[in-house]
Specification:
2 copies of one chain form a homodimer. Chain A is about 35% helix and about 25% strand. In chain A, the strands form 2 sheets. The first copy, chain A, has a 9-stranded mixed sheet with strand order 5-4-1-8-9-10-11-12-13, with helices on both faces. A 4-stranded mixed sheet of chain A has the order 3-2-6-7. The longest helix of chain A has 18 residues. At the A-B interface, helix 8, strand 13, helix 10 and helix 12 of A face helix 8, strand 13, helix 10 and helix 12 of B.
């Protein structure tokens, strides 16, 4: 198996200015694995309750996602999150969080999972992330997401985990909070000093940036006339990015750059409809079409200025 | 003469977390013309008072900027602005504005000025912008800047002016305010319906975007570890952009794209020191070096994804 993700599998209730859903499939591991499944084989480590039904399992199965490490706790209910977005779709307002079976989640990767080449540590408690990371000893590349809650409440544990990963994927506010630096480029330098050779910053409607030994790489977001539901965009980005990387034998800076684009493409589809609805029925041709659009919308010729005497 | 700018020439007092200046050369026409002067010949239409001295005039002269249309009112004082930036350098807090001779400014372009190929209507009252635009009948390309104040207080006049320009250069908040659309791509479509074939959106630390018949083009900002004083960044961007365009016989989409990069490069220098200090002593080699860096930090290979069966 090439790509392992540990994270939440959840039911989401979401309300935006454009509509609402009372109960739909969500969670970081869900969004991540769906996006990654277009590029590579994915295995999910997570936990659900007895309310997690056949129709939800079918979403994973239809995309060939391996759910044999998705634990099912019959005595409990699946993690539930209720959120609302205003017209400024950048900020999620949490209305309700019911951890349910997720409260006592102890990831127990199978031997097959422990043999993964690539690992994504989705946004869960940093000690658990580190345990998973350490159980997959031979991993070629381990990437980490986190959030403001862990930066505040579990800083020491988080910094230990950051020390044992290769790639960190967070948003700009989190990078600033973690580093204590307002300037993004200084913040990035400080975060990279904590361990990850590569730091990827998600900037929502403004795109994404990558800081690594190979230098700085920055891209705008895919242009969208309507954003419907941003829930899961960050995990979908990470899924496209790591899924694309995992489809390669070797990874260099050029591969990382294209992976950033494929991550952005996947996120652009995710936000166009509620939950997993759009990504679940994507095609490779649609993905490549937006990849090509990305090239068209960022290309310019490298012709330096020469004063002609006009 | 190839490029004409009408706008403010001012004294600025600026305080940032990194230092302060009690009185330095500023104003939209100043920042614009200095940046443009690296690419083409520039002429300034504006007004100053008797306190505008030789050392200020020398800044223009040193860059070969034609100031014969810079009116001098001996009975008055030069426009004065005092502002403060907090650690979030994106927002200027105005502490004092003394319009002085600028209050009764009536642009009177000379015949030479009226023969300009390119015109930049800097951020002044929209009726005055339109008068200048109409006086330069043969102009190949006229670009417009404005601000929230005119969008609120002179909306009808502004919309008339927008109807007679080719390019509009504003920031994202202004585009949203002008169009009443929260989504930037819808906002851009509405603004372009008002007249300008090309709309350029400045996004500060997030870069810039261009909307035209040729499609969408978007770039990140040049990466800076320290931003010292953002005053004049937008006018410096416009100056680099239009200066570069004016150095060309014909303008196509590829030229417009490179002009966006040169505009961003000029703005990146402007914010590194107070006022005009950094741009005034720039070299073409420094400009081209950042242009090349822009290419390196945005390039990726156009290789669509093909599932290999891994």
């Amino acid at each position: 198996m090439s790509l392992l993700v540990v994270g939440s599998v959840a039911f989401d209730a979401v309300e935006t200015p454009f509509g609402k859903r009372e109960r739909m499939l969500g969670g970081s591991a869900t969004h991540f694995s769906l996006a990654a499944s277009f590029f590579t084989d994915v295995r999910v480590v997570g936990v659900v309750g007895s309310d997690f039904g056949e129709s939800e399992m079918e979403v994973f199965r239809a995309r060939n996602i391996d759910t044999s490490d998705l634990e099912r706790v019959e005595s409990g209910k699946t993690f539930f999150w209720r959120g609302r977005y205003d017209f400024d779709l950048n900020t999620a307002h949490t209305l309700d969080t019911q951890l349910n079976v997720f409260a006592d989640f102890q990831p127990k990767p199978s031997d097959a999972a422990k043999g993964s080449r690539f690992v994504f540590l989705g946004n869960i408690q940093p000690d658990l992330q580190r345990e998973v990371r350490e159980s997959v000893r031979g991993a070629e590349l381990v990437a980490l997401d986190t959030m403001n809650y862990w930066i505040e409440s579990a800083r020491e544990s988080l910094i230990k985990t950051i020390g044992v990963v290769d790639v960190m994927i967070i948003n700009d506010a989190e990078a600033r909070q973690l580093s204590g630096e307002a300037n993004l480029h200084r913040a990035a330098a400080k975060v990279r000093e904590m361990g990850p050779k590569t730091l990827i910053i998600k900037r929502g409607e403004y795109g994404a940036a990558m800081f690594s030994d190979a230098g700085y790489f920055a891209i705008p977001a895919y242009p969208l006339e309507s954003v419907f539901d941003p829930t899961g965009a960050g995990d979908t980005f990470a899924g496209g990015l790591l899924g694309y990387l995992a489809s390669h034998e070797t990874i260099d800076d050029a591969t990382m750059r294209r992976a950033m684009i494929f991550g952005s493409v996947m996120a652009s589809f995710n936000v166009e409809e509620f939950g997993t609805e759009r990504v679940a029925r994507l095609t490779h041709e649609e993905i490549n079409e937006r990849f090509r659009t990305f090239k068209r919308m960022t290309h310019f010729d490298e012709i330096p200025f020469e004063r002609t005497g006009r």
